[in-house]
Structure prediction request, 894 residues.
Amino acid sequence: MRFELILYLETSFIPNNRLHALPDHLCNGTQLKMLDVSGNLIRKINRLQFTACNYLKIMYVLLLISLYNCKFRLSNNSIDRIPLHTFSSSSPLTIVDLALNKISFVDENAFGNLAVLQNLDLSRNRLARITASLFANIPYLTSLNLTLNRIESVPDFVFVNLQDLETLNLTLNRIESVPDFVFVNLQDLETLWLGNERLQYLNQQAFYGLNRLKYLQIDYCRNLRTLNFKLFLNLKPLFALYLRFCNLSASAFNRSSFQQLSGLRALYLDNNDLSDIDESLFKNMAFQSLGLGFSKLSPKKVNFIASLGTDLTSLYLDGLRLKDFINASMISKEIQNLYLNDNDISSIHASSAPILRSLKKLVMDRNNMGNQGYVTLITLTPNLIELYLGENIISEICPKFLSLTAFSKIRYLNLNSNNIEKLDSYCFWSMPDLNYLVLKDNPLINFNSRSFGGVAGIRSIHSTREYLCCVAPSSVIVCRPNPNQFSLSTCYNILAHDLLRVFIWVIGIISVVGNTVSIRWHSQKYSSNKFGIVKMLLINLSTADFIMGIYLIVIASANVYYANRYYEVFEIWLRSVPCLTASFCISLSSLMSTFVLFLITLDRYLHLVFPFQNYRLSTKTTILALVVLWLISITFVGLPILYSINQPSINRLYSSNSACLPGNFNNPYLLTWLLCYAGLTLIVWIFIAIMYAAILSTLANSRKEAHRRLSKNDKIIRAKMITIVATDLICWLPLYIVLIRGFGFGLDTHSLPFIAVLSLPLNSCINPIIYTLFTTTFIDYINLAIGKLNCCSCLTFFRSIRKSTQGSQLQGNIYTGSIHPSLVIALSSNPELSKVYIKVELPHNYGVNNLGWLQLYNAKDNLPWEKEISFYTYIKSKDCKLKNIMGCLWYCKG
Prediction:
């Protein structure tokens, strides 16, 4: 990567590639202001790396944040150290973001030349210590983020040179204590984040000198042994105090010192044990925001504490197991933001109307709100702007009896993880200002193109429902998941591409017809009345492949039936019996076909590798193996299919795949099933390949020992075996490659459906071709049948031959001639030829004449004629090499 010759380059984006390093003197000859190389594999920053980056003002190594007009980004890499003189030139860089790397060492003068640096982010690294010299030459720094490192202590005077610092974040490190006067030089500090799980002591003068501190966070301090609110008495400007997840109890709250925090406007005591607290402690406190979530307070105490705050605008009451909405008569009517997550509220009473009318934001995720509670709620909140009702039990959100004023101001509606199945026409007509809609993890079975009618201003729709975006209004800017028009399916068709539709129909018809012919052919009983192990296996193979043909026909038919309206019936189709049947068919067919091919290969292997030993599959063993394999396959495939009945996509074997192909990678149980399925078939194919390799090796060694050259028949056998293995690899190998690559690079869910639809069904039409239609016996039978149909129209002689045939002279002569239908008469017209054989010699296309005996029968003598046909047919089918039996040329009836 070189920029030297791009003189006027100012911005370059190269994120999420595989860059391992940046070149030295990166900015030479350029005016580079912004470089994004985030998400690469960069492991280190070399010395003099950014020499000549004179225009660079912001350097990012994690997040691209539009704080200034010039940016530089190296985010989400593997940088482990910042050496001396990394930034050796005098650069106007104001932001350096090195978050989410592996930095364990930063040279003390690494930032020495960044004199105007204002924002430094070293969060999510591996720093174990910080020193004053590290920040000695960046006096104008206003924000320092050291979150999620391994810092164990805060040395004295470590921040002595950062007198302009306004925000300091030391959250989630390994700090055990904060010494006195450690922040004494941070006169302008306004925000301090100090939450650490290992923090045990806060010395009495720990916050001395923080005369402008407004926001203090001491969350997650579960090991904090004591907390004296006198610590905060000198923090006169303190606006918000966060003490969440600190295992505080009522004994930690000293009345006199606590009530002296008169300037405090926001107090967050969530996730502490306040069950025994004296609620009168909060009297005369002018809180604007109060957090009491998961604090084990009783509903009575909650109502009393909330009633004391006349200025209260935000109230957090999550996880208090409230069964009813809070008593509105005791709560301030000025509350605008109310949080009631993780309670048991199932209904809203009319007595709550006063507080509901003033609300602008209501968050009630993970409650028991049903349809009636939803209707009551939206009726009583005419001024509500944001509503969160995720993970409740709401199924109907389109009530048709709401007044025109109901919900008229709502802009943000979150209904994640409910049981909403349909969006009727004009479902949101009573919310004309709706701007942001979230419907993730809902079934959404029925909707139509008019579901969002009447909502002219909607801009964002988020769901997990495929193809909901197909009916999104033109005003929508962001819609997720946005259907990929190049995927297997689109908004209008199950099969998106014309070639794919034709392919499915062709392969499906070939599979059904070919395997039907194969089953009929191998089921025939000849005079020997012997069925045979090979025939038994081939019938089972054709049956398994016939099931695949059924799958293809079902999918192709569904595509025709739902054409141009698929987005409306997407979920209906996926929950339908035909889709479940199709998924069962393709799974059963592929698995059972693999098992039967293994048995066929094993039978060949035993016969060819051990020809003189008694290693054979008996009829009884074969029948038992087939019955067991069918039962195992049906059970193994049937269980996840039964589990998928009327389930959402996360619990379906085929998830949201329009072709009903198994491939749920989000459900761990179904993913395990899929891996077992693929692994089992892979092992079987490996054994098949090994056995064919052994067969070819054995045949080659036998031919070598017999000093016999490779015959034409040997070549045919070898080519056929190689073809069998090659076709199996063509059909299965792409699927295995995608699954194996998924462990290292993530599963390619876009390519997988194409591979499954295009490759797996090929086996179902290739198998009958290899094992039946292209066999010599079947081809000879077809030729014989064609000859029987056409013989009467083609078995004729020249007129001159007929005139010379008289009486008994026929038996000793050989007659030759060409067959020419336009110049002959039928031999049956001569009564003298009805009881004799004629020895005929007919020219062959390749120059070798065929000799044969020709006998003509009258229509009345059909019985001996039929017997002779059966005799010759049997001889030909058994491929008997009898020297005294001439080849049969034609048969002529009548």
